[in-house]
């Protein structure tokens, strides 16, 4: 159904192996000194050099080629103890490193000229039926998590595509089909096992290190490397029918304005039926004939066409409609037009009040961007050799409320809901294309599109200035947008658990705590 993610979705199959990890680089002659130090520390069996097949397979496993930079070596820990050894070794050697989850998209670069530690071998999920808690290793993909949980009749707040990795998803928020009923994915983590900068393996939960627990819920790789997530699971109301309803609707391009109005209405009422979700995107998808308007609808308790989606059904001319009531394991497999190998991606994430004017403006700016991109990248047939997504998702207040009830996080969503006094819309501008040179040339077009939307929303007084970390692109600075309160908590936790700022100074990848190094 594809709607859950991108029109470009996937290549997930290959992405499945090597999930979380670290990448590092060190001093002069780093490939020698840093990588050898890891070998000397007893990790020889898990250090992989560029002259090995595993190294290249791991690079090829990226969903987006833009993120696949070449580190000096990779290290694949198998246990929390291995991770601890890696951290103490790279810290002692002043070796820059990167933390890598399943590497789903473009991230702030920095994996090149570094050591990469990847927790892909740490991909197990175990379920405790007494506590209802799933213990998930960071290198797992949601597909395998859902498969492990299915026989127990439970599900979890995970990715809407099975190919998404656990490590990044849960440390960067995590928008799932269950967001309106259970908050973000991170809100459902009851305990993190994490290796902090001094190499110690500690737990962070409501009782032990609670400040770290809160800061890890949105703090990404800034506090340590999580080696296990203990996640609350969700029972289906009818155990005999552990199924989810999903529907994919493709509208005629003439339906645009009507569908946006329907989404505004849906978002305003999303707290009334917290089991129903929707994702809407406008896109340029050559394989689907060019301009598309796609809508994904889901109901987490398996109710087909619940009343909450009635407005969408009469919003405009529907071209195709395809519904199913299936286990989660099936739903997250059925992704739309696959993103062929070698695609590169540009992402920009924004948010604003639930306001049809901004959404309509965003789609107009999208059209302008598509026209420019078609000139730049016409392709053999002149239809444009690229795909875009101009996507909108509901940010009803109830999502933030569930987060607060579960102990709070550092996402900043509650801050923006409070400040705006409004439900919101999560916006994503995305481009998928081939070629590093093309990517460079296309960047200004996507940047201008996102900037126009941001300025328009701000001028109307409905802009949030929030960037959702998991959707933020390489040029963005999401942790600068979480509001003073969350940022204060994040900085305080970083000061306490990483006083030498290892994860700011030596971590070569991922989003950082803004203006922190200079404090
Ligand atoms: C096809 C597709 C579908 C998606 N669907 C959704 C969706 O439904 N909902 C949603 O919210 N997002 C979605 N996303 C975005 C996704 O959540 C992010 O790309 C996320 O970063 C993926 O996590 P990862 O582990 O795969 O990524 P990676 O790129 O490997 O990791 C991202 C960052 O997370 C941090 N990190 C990773 N592992 C750890 C760890 N063990 N400890 C500490 N820090 C760590 C690191 O800083 C790293 O730089 C989707 C993306 C794609 C490409
Ligand atoms: C690969 O490179 C490493 C580091 O330079 C070296 O130690 C190792 O012997 C090489 N392996 C092969 C098979 O060439
Ligand atoms: C987990 O990792 C191992 C070792 O890399 C791999 O063989 C296995 O297929 C992975 N399992 C899943 C479900 O991805
Ligand atoms: C949502 O699901 C819960 C059970 O998971 C149920 O109690 C509730 O009534 C459902 N809400 C609606 C509007 O269907
Ligand atoms: C798009 O670009 C890729 C990579 O350069 C190429 O293989 C493919 O044939 C192109 N497709 C079209 C329709 O131009």
UniProtKB/TrEMBL annotation:
Residue ranges constituting the FAD-binding PCMH-type domain according to the UniProt record: 67-236
Domain of life: Eukaryota
Keyword Flavoprotein among UniProt keywords: yes
Signal sequence bounds: 1-24
Xref: Pfam families: FAD_binding_4 (PF01565)
Statement: the UniProt record of this protein carries the keyword Oxidoreductase: yes
Keywords attached to this entry: FAD, Flavoprotein, Oxidoreductase, Signal
An MF annotation (GO) of this entry: oxidoreductase activity
Coiled-coil stretches noted in the UniProt entry, renumbered to this chain: none
Family annotation (InterPro entries): FAD-bd_PCMH, FAD-bd_PCMH-like_sf, FAD-bd_PCMH_sub2, FAD-linked_Oxidoreductase, Oxid_FAD_bind_N
Family to which the UniProt record says this protein belongs: Belongs to the oxygen-dependent FAD-linked oxidoreductase family.
Protein's recorded name: FAD binding domain-containing protein
Organism: Dichotomopilus funicola
């Amino acid at each position: 159904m594809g709607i859950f993610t991108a029109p470009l979705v996937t290549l997930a199959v290959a992405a499945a192996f090597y999930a979380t990890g670290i990448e590092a680089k060190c001093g002069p002659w780093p490939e020698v000194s840093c990588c050898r130090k890891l070998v000397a520390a007893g990790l020889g069996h898990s250090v992989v050099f560029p002259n090995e097949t595993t190294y290249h397979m791991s690079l090829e496993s990226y969903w987006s080629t833009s993120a696949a930079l070449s580190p000096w070596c990779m290290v694949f820990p198998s246990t929390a103890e291995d991770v601890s050894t890696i951290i103490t070794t790279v810290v002692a050697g002043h070796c820059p490193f990167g933390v890598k989850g399943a590497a789903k998209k473009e991230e702030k670069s920095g994996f090149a000229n570094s050591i990469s530690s990847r927790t892909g071998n740490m991909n197990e999920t175990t379920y405790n039926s007494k506590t209802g808690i799933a213990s998930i290793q960071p290198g797992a993909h949601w597909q395998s998590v859902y498969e492990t949980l299915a026989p127990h009749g439970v599900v979890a707040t995970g990715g809407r595509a099975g190919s998404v990795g656990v490590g990044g998803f849960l440390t960067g928020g995590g928008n799932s089909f269950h967001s309106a009923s259970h908050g973000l994915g991170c809100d459902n983590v009851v305990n993190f096992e994490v290796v902090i900068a001094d190499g110690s393996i500690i737990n962070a939960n409501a009782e032990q290190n609670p400040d770290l627990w809160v800061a890890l819920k949105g703090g990404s790789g800034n506090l340590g490397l999580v080696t296990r997530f203990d996640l609350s699971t969700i029972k289906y109301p009818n155990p005999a029918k552990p199924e989810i309803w999903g529907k994919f609707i493709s509208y005629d391009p003439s339906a645009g304005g009507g569908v946006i109005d329907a989404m505004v209405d849906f978002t305003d009422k999303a707290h009334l039926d917290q089991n129903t979700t929707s994702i809407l995107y406008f896109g340029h998808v050559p394989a689907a004939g060019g301009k598309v308007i796609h809508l994904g609808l889901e109901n987490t308790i398996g109710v087909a066409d619940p009343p909450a989606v009635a407005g969408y059904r009469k919003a405009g001319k529907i071209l195709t409609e395809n519904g199913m009531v299936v286990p989660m394991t099936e739903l997250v497999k059925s992704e739309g037009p696959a993103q062929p190998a070698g695609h590169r991606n540009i992402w920009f994430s924004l948010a604003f009040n639930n306001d049809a004017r901004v959404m309509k403006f965003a789609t107009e700016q999208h059209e302008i961007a598509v026209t420019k991109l078609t000139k730049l990248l016409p392709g053999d047939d002149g239809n444009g050799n690229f795909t875009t997504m101009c996507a909108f998702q509901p940010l009803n207040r109830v999502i933030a409320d569930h987060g607060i009830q579960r102990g709070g996080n550092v996402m900043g969503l509650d801050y923006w809901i409070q400040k705006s006094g409004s439900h919101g819309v999560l916006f994503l501008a995305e481009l998928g294309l081939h070629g590093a040179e093309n990517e460079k040339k296309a960047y200004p077009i996507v940047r201008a599109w996102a900037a126009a939307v941001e300025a328009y929303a701000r001028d109307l007084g409905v802009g949030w200035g929030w960037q959702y970390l998991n959707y933020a692109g390489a040029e963005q600075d999401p942790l600068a947008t979480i509001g003073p309160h969350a940022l204060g908590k994040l900085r305080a936790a970083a000061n306490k658990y990483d006083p030498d700022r290892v994860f700011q100074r030596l971590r070569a990848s991922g989003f950082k705590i803004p203006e922190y190094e200079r404090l």
